[in-house]
Amino acid sequence: MSEAAKAATPFVIGILGFYIAWRQWSTAHHKLRLDLFDRRMSVYEPVAKFIAALNEHRKIDVVAAQTVIEKIAGGQFYFDKRQMDLLRKILVEVVAVQAIQLDLNQLQTQVDQPQWKEELKSRIKSVQALQYEMPATFEPLLTFGKVT
Fold first, then answer.
1. pTM to 2 decimals?
2. 4 in a domain, yes or no?
3. pLDDT averaged per 10 residues, the chain (length 148)
4. Is residue 101 part of a domain?
5. Long-range contacts of 135-144 (CB under 8 A, 24+ apart)
6. Parent domain of 125
7. Looking at the domain assignment, is residue 32 inside a domain?
8. How many domains does the chain have?
């Protein structure tokens, strides 16, 4: 073996080692992004579906509301401040709509119902307005960007 080959061998091995380490880091980085995407989507999707159902039916499914409340509470570590602020606003409105619906169901007299029905309409409109903010607010965190 020539002196040049002997001298180049550690350099070539070092380059190969660096390349393998870089590929492992890159794979781990992409896996992390995928895992984070899945966790974020597991919060975003039920919230978006719930709001769409609320807009369509104009009343809350109690089980779906509970799921949304749990998802939002559990998702606080997956989002930035901006996204969590929006999720908290949605949470407040969902809980308010749910409470108003329960009150309306329990009211014995018709006297207070118009006031509560107006409040319910107002809260549903608030949720609808928040729905239009969701795509722009969450889009940066729910895309992979350029993955090579």
1. 0.72
2. no
3. 83 93 94 89 88 79 83 85 89 83 69 74 82 84 64
4. yes
5. 137/82, 137/83, 137/86, 138/40, 138/44, 138/79, 138/83, 141/40, 141/79, 141/80, 141/83, 142/37, 142/40, 142/41, 142/44, 144/33, 144/34, 144/37
6. 40-141
7. no
8. 1
